[in-house]
Every structure is written in structure tokens, then in C-alpha cells.
């Protein structure tokens, strides 16, 4: 399901356009949006979207005068996913090491005792539970997360390096107010990624490079599609209450009664 809000809808201005479209096929979405009068669609000055080709095509064909802005949170999410991929790789390695140790203990007919870290976690538990700390900024960590993060970074220096890259990308969007400086800082970040040797981060950097024109547009007005994402979250939570939806028409009717 696509939820489409124009920048005016996000700001609560007059002439807001909100569309909920069943399905994700670009042609279906375009057909529905084109039912909105062209005069209204031409008034849309800015659209935030993800890096999917289908979304770009929808924006071009339905809102030809609108400036396209790649949503910063979709860009940052790629970096977080690259970071988590490195953590998961270490977790699988820890599982292998634990299985090897268990098998050796059985062969020697002794009881296996896993090594317990200072915070009470085993290595396997640390890598599983540490995922939440890696999603957050250091100033938002709980005491337990601070301890886990410290252990993670001591045991796996590459995780610290990857975490710093992800945080630096976030800080570029947070602390930069002009497009030219944003472009320069993204270029410097790209070089740090290249030097890091992380394959997953290089993939992120290439994606940014391929969409940089719409990514740096963020620095003009600092627009995001947070309103649409929040609305989608409400829809998913509402749907989850009923363990899914069978009657789509009635579901959409209830949505309009609750949120319209």
C-alpha cells in the first residue's frame, strides 16, 4: 500500500493532497493520482520519496513541477542496515565458536561452560542484545546499553568504525544547512567509506552517489516524509489490532473515520 502526502499535507496547509493507494505497482498509483485535477498537482512544489525507481517515476509523471527530495531517513537506514550486517556476521561467527566448544566439551566428556563477560552476557548474547544500542546515538543509551556498546567496540573494533560511519552520516543531515556544504561533507564521508574497506558501506556510498542530486535537495528546506511514515505506522498498528484485514473497503472506511 502506498501513502502519498504532498509537502503541503505535511505542513497542514490549504490544498493538501493525501492519497492511500492499494498495491505498489507504479502504473496503478499513477492512474489513481491522475484523478486529482492537474491544476492541483501542478501546485505541488516539493516531494520527499525513497530511492525506489518506481517512486521516482510516479513523482515525475504525476507532479512534473515538484522538486524531488530523497528522504534522509531512508538514506540513514541503509547505513544502519550495513552496520547491523557487520554485527550479524560476528554473531554467526560467535555461534560457530560456541558450537565448536560444545562439541569439544562433549568429546572430552566435560560440561561446557560459556565465558561470561563483565556485564553478564556471553559473547553470543552480547552480539544479539547489542543491536539496540547500535540503532541509537550515544547520548540516548541506557546504562546497560553503554556497557554493552563499550564491550562490543573493545571486542570488535570494526563495529566501532562502522558505527562511527553511520553516526557521521546522520550528523551530516542533522548539522548541515546548505546544499554546497552537504555535498562536500557527503563526498568526504564517501572517501572515509572507501578507505574503511567495508563492502556493505561501499554499497551504501554507491547508492548515495547514484541519487546525490535528490539527496542534497534535502538541504534546501530540510523536508522529510516523516508525516507519511507516521501515518503508515498508525495504519499498520490499527491493522495489527485485528490480526490482518479481509474486507479492505470497510478497513479503508474505518481509517477515514479515524484519521481523516
Task: Describe what this molecule looks like in 3D.
The structure is a single chain. With 260 residues, the protein is mainly alpha-helical. The protein has two domains: 106 residues, no CATH class; 148 residues, no CATH class. The protein contains 15 helices and four strands. The strands form two sheets. Strands 1-2 form a two-stranded antiparallel sheet. The chain has a two-stranded parallel ribbon with strand order 3-4. Helix 4 links the parallel strand 3 and strand 4. The longest helix has 36 residues. The radius of gyration is 23 Å and the shape is globular. The relative contact order is 0.11. The N terminus is likely disordered.
Q: Strand order, biggest sheet?
A: 1-2
Report how far the terminal alpha carbons are from each other.
17 Å
Q: Report the count of strand segments.
A: 4
Estimate the mean pLDDT confidence.
86
Shape: globular
How many domains, in number, for the residues?
Answer: 2
Q: Major sheet: size, sense and barrel closure?
A: 2 strands, antiparallel
Bin the helical content.
Answer: 55-70%
Unreliably modeled segments: 1-16
How much strand content do the residues show?
5-15%
**Helical segment tally?**
15
Q: For the CA atoms, what is the radius of gyration?
A: 23 Å
Observed structural traits:
mainly alpha; two-stranded parallel ribbon
Short summary of the structure?
This protein has 260 residues and is mainly alpha-helical. The protein folds into two domains: 2-71 and 224-259, no CATH class; 73-220, no CATH class. The protein is built from 15 helices and four strands.
Amino acid at each position: 500500500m502506498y501513502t502519498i502526502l504532498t509537502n503541503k499535507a505535511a505542513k497542514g496547509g490549504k490544498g493538501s493532497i493525501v492519497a492511500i493507494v492499494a498495491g505498489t505497482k507504479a502504473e496503478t498509483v499513477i492512474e489513481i493520482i491522475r484523478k486529482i485535477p492537474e491544476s492541483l498537482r501542478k501546485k505541488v512544489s516539493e516531494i520527499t520519496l525513497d530511492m525506489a525507481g518506481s517512486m521516482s517515476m510516479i513523482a515525475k509523471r504525476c507532479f512534473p513541477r515538484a522538486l524531488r527530495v530523497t528522504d534522509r531517513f531512508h538514506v540513514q537506514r541503509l547505513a544502519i542496515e550495513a552496520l547491523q550486517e557487520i554485527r550479524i556476521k560476528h554473531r554467526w561467527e560467535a555461534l560457530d565458536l560456541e558450537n565448536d566448544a560444545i562439541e569439544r566439551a562433549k568429546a572430552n566428556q566435560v560440561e561446557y561452560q560459556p565465558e561470561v563477560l563483565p556485564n553478564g552476557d556471553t559473547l553470543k548474547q552480547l552480539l544479539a542484545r547489542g543491536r539496540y544500542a547500535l540503532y541509537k546515538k550515544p547520548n540516548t543509551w541506557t546504562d546497560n546499553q553503554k556497557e554493552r556498546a563499550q564491550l562490543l567496540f573493545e571486542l570488535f573494533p570494526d563495529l566501532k568504525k562502522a558505527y562511527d560511519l553511520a553516526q557521521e552520516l546522520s550528523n551530516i543531515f542533522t548539522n548541515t544547512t546548505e546544499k554546497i556544504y552537504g555535498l562536500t561533507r557527503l563526498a568526504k564521508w564517501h572517501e572515509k567509506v572507501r578507505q574503511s574497506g567495508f563492502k556493505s558501506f561501499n554499497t551504501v556510498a554507491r547508492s548515495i552517489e547514484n541519487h546525490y542530486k535528490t539527496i542534497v535537495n534535502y538541504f534546501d528546506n530540510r523536508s522529510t516524509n516523516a508525516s507519511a511514515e507516521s501515518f503508515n505506522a498508525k495504519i499498520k498498528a490499527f491493522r495489527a489490532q485485528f490480526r490482518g484485514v479481509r474486507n479492505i473497503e470497510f478497513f479503508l472506511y474505518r481509517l477515514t473515520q479515524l484519521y481523516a
